[in-house]
Amino acid sequence: MGKLLVLLAILSLGQIITAERIVNCYWGTWANYRSGNGKFDVSNIDANLCTHLSYSFFGINDSGNIQSLDTWLDYDLGFISQAIGLKRQNSNLKVLAVVGGWNEGSTKYSSMAGDWSKRQNFINSALTLLRNNGFDGLDLDWEYPNQRGGNWNDRSNFVTLLRELKEAFAPYGYELGIAVGAGESLASTSYEIANIAQQVNFINVMTYDFAMASDGKTGFNAPQWAIENAINYWLSQGAPANKLVLGVGSYGRSFQLSDPSQNWPGAPCRGVGSAGAYTGDGGYLGYNEICQNNWHTVFDNDNAAPYAYSGDQWVSFDNVLSVQWKMDFALRKNLAGAMVWSLETDDYRGLCGQAYPLLRTINEKLRW
């Protein structure tokens, strides 16, 4: 009997060690409306580079019911069904519906989470959305509880909402994930970390956006020390390593320098950098835009991250080397895996070399 128990323990340990790590690929479906080489649709997705495909975004109405934010794209163009169809390329792929996001705000989610009737509307509409479309689960991206119009009760109400979702999903085997703010100041304000961790399959930690032009100076979007501090904080507060998914941004935060001759990290800036040809948003450049810019690029060893500049334009971003550093840290901490925000800003066309350089680097470190 003793030998049998030892054998079972070894087999169980082997299963833990060999379990495939998560590579969660967020897809901002609105990139379909971008022009030229920035246009992105399902034909641009390599399903074998992802264990999860997170279809972004759905929203909610004032009653708590989940709703499409672009019915023409989701249903008339058939983007949802095409996303589900990627399972023909990768039978192990999980396709998740993502609800929330920055533009959805927090107020409606705060109201829904704190009202039993609205929570039931949310849960029932989630079940309908998943069942009717063939999704494998839900990713709730509430940005953020107890912030942006929320209140202190959001913290406990979020736990209640996740517990009720978990119970409702269990009979169907649906997965439940969340996307969360990373740093201690944000996370400590918004989450009962140990309690939410018990309710979900995995936690996508958004370990980026650590510096913005509103800071008045240039800074790194995702410096290594900041992501390590963030993950270590989540671990210290009771989040198990095997549920934490490390976020990688396939984009950079850009700045307009106050003085082009002062082009180092921490130099004064007068605002956001110029909009990119594809993404079209000031202060934000996709890696597929950055890699074609041919700006002067420096890899900062202290932050394990690159930056680039040209004239009065300055951008901090991730490249293959910095992503390798991040994945080595994820492996050292035995995290569940990594996620990328988002597919459509990696160099998915291979205009600067091999297609999907950042996503491939994640896979090379975690899966291959």
Automatic annotation (TrEMBL):
Gene Ontology MF term list: chitin binding; chitinase activity
Originating gene: LOC117569363
UniProt signal peptide: 1-19
A GO BP annotation: carbohydrate metabolic process
Signal is among the record's keywords: yes
Superkingdom, taxonomy of origin: Eukaryota
SMART domains according to UniProt: Glyco_18
Lineage: Eukaryota, Metazoa, Ecdysozoa, Arthropoda, Hexapoda
InterPro entries: Chitinase_II/V-like_cat, Chitinase_insertion_sf, GH, Glyco_hydro18_cat, Glyco_hydro_18_chit_AS, Glycosyl_Hydrlase_18
Keywords: Glycosidase, Hydrolase, Signal
One Gene Ontology term, aspect cellular component: extracellular region
Species, as recorded: Drosophila albomicans (Fruit fly)
Annotated ranges, domain GH18: 21-368
Family annotation (Pfam families): Glyco_hydro_18 (PF00704)
Family the entry assigns: Belongs to the glycosyl hydrolase 18 family.
Official protein name in the record: Acidic mammalian chitinase-like
